[in-house]
């Protein structure tokens, strides 16, 4: 019965089950085997009970018939076993064929995977190539890198700088309304760049999940207050423009104090003076605040000057003579250059001249190569290239080196550019000829 069930349960199209399935046809080997087994079972069971004597007498006459049935059963068993072996052989071949097919599929999948990896690698290479081309084009248009400038400004910013502006009602109104432009203006050196970098950093944190924020850098020239008023009146009266909001960017005493404390903690020599006399910190803050006139740049230059003082007396003398005007502060910053030996002084002037007169920011390597060339040279002499350390030794607090790529050299502020243009005006023609 179990064999009959397996035959009936097999799938009609199973080629590896064809022989066994043939065994199960009506009146086929399985049916004949079942009949033979039933017949021999009846003959054997009939020997029990009260007919046992009778059957014993009849058995010699039925023995041949029983043997014939047993022989038939053996033949059916052999036939069914052969059918099973044949189907098993077909099953093995079928499994082997399936395994070979799976192997071919696996090989093709592996080849496809390698092809996909090649395409991904090629895509990455193409992306890198396109990115290099993009950077090359951007650098061809302009070497100015506002991302690096942003990073550099933030790296020098004291913690919580500009918090009074970010918490102001004007900024909150601008941030809460759509379609408004915040018009901000301030005096030269008043910290507009620092505040702008602070606002951009704040917006990045507020809208961290936004990817459509457009960063804008507005370089504004100095203009009279009356001109600023007329400009605002024009903008407010123009119906074709968006709504503008105005804010005066000024560096408060709190910002100055935070910045001075931050710089003292970072400047080793200045920090040691304060560590020996903590009251000195308050004096430095007071004197710097009284001489900055809300100019962040002045605070920066004053701390740069104070940080070089080797003794407490020299520091106190410098505090009493801190200038209140930018040009005076730049004059003080230039004093170490004037006090250098003749070779270093000449080199410093050449470096400052190249930076001030160049049409774009130069890299340290470009300045080194420029300094190595003299009028009349027909070949470039590698032996005449000055060491990179010499460039940084003549900075005098007036030159800034990019904090990210550590190569781009520029003046610290556009007012420094104006200062050098005035300073070099008398000899500008000869200097331009040399450049």
Automatic annotation (TrEMBL):
<protein>
    <submittedName>
        <fullName>Uncharacterized protein</fullName>
    </submittedName>
</protein>
<keyword id="KW-0175">Coiled coil</keyword>
<dbReference type="Pfam" id="PF22939">
    <property type="entry name" value="WHD_GPIID"/>
</dbReference>
<feature type="coiled-coil region">
    <location>
        <begin position="102"/>
        <end position="133"/>
    </location>
</feature>
<feature type="domain" description="GPI inositol-deacylase winged helix">
    <location>
        <begin position="344"/>
        <end position="420"/>
    </location>
</feature>
<dbReference type="Pfam" id="PF24883">
    <property type="entry name" value="NPHP3_N"/>
</dbReference>
<feature type="domain" description="Nephrocystin 3-like N-terminal">
    <location>
        <begin position="160"/>
        <end position="209"/>
    </location>
</feature>
<dbReference type="InterPro" id="IPR027417">
    <property type="entry name" value="P-loop_NTPase"/>
</dbReference>
<keyword id="KW-0677">Repeat</keyword>
<dbReference type="InterPro" id="IPR056884">
    <property type="entry name" value="NPHP3-like_N"/>
</dbReference>
<dbReference type="InterPro" id="IPR054471">
    <property type="entry name" value="GPIID_WHD"/>
</dbReference>
């Amino acid at each position: 019965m179990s064999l009959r069930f397996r035959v009936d349960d097999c799938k009609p199209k199973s080629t590896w089950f064809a022989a066994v399935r043939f065994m199960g046809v009506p009146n086929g080997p399985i049916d004949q085997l079942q009949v033979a087994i039933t017949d021999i079972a009846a003959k054997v069971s009939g020997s029990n009970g009260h007919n046992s004597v009778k059957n014993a007498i009849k058995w010699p006459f039925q023995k041949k018939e029983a043997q014939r049935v047993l022989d038939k059963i053996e033949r059916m068993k052999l036939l069914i076993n052969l059918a099973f072996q044949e189907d098993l052989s077909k099953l093995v071949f079928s499994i082997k064929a399936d395994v070979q097919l799976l192997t071919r599929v696996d090989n093709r999948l592996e080849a496809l995977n390698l092809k996909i990896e090649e395409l991904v690698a090629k895509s990455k290479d193409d992306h890198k190539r396109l990115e290099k081309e993009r950077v090359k084009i951007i650098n061809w248009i302009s070497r100015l890198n506002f991302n690096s400038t942003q990073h550099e400004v933030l790296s020098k910013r004291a913690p919580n700088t500009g918090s009074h502006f970010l918490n102001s009602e004007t900024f909150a109104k601008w941030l809460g309304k759509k379609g408004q432009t915040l018009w901000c203006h301030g005096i030269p050196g008043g910290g507009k760049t620092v505040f702008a970098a602070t606002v951009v950093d704040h917006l990045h944190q507020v809208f961290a999940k936004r990817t459509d924020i457009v960063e804008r850098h507005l370089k504004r020239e100095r203009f009279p207050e009356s001109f600023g008023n007329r400009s605002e009146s024009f903008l407010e009266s123009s119906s074709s423009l968006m709504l503008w909001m105005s804010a005066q960017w000024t560096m408060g005493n709190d910002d100055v104090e935070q910045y001075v404390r931050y710089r003292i903690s970072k400047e080793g020599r200045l920090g040691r003076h304060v560590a020996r006399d903590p009251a000195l910190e308050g004096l430095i803050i007071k004197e710097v605040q009284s001489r900055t006139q809300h100019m962040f740049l002045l605070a920066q230059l004053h701390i740069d000057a104070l940080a070089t003082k080797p003794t407490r007396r020299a520091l106190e003398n410098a505090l009493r003579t801190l200038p209140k005007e930018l040009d005076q502060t730049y004059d003080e910053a230039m004093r170490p250059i004037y006090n250098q030996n003749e070779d270093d002084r000449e080199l410093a002037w050449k470096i400052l001249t190249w930076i001030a007169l160049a049409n774009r920011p130069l890299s340290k390597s470009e300045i080194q190569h420029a300094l190595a060339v003299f009028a009349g040279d027909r070949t470039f002499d590698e032996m005449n290239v000055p060491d990179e350390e010499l460039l940084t030794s003549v900075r005098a607090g007036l030159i800034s080196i990019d904090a990210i790529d550590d190569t781009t050299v520029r003046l610290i502020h556009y007012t420094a550019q104006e200062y050098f243009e005035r300073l070099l005006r008398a000899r500008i023609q000869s200097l331009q000829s040399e450049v």
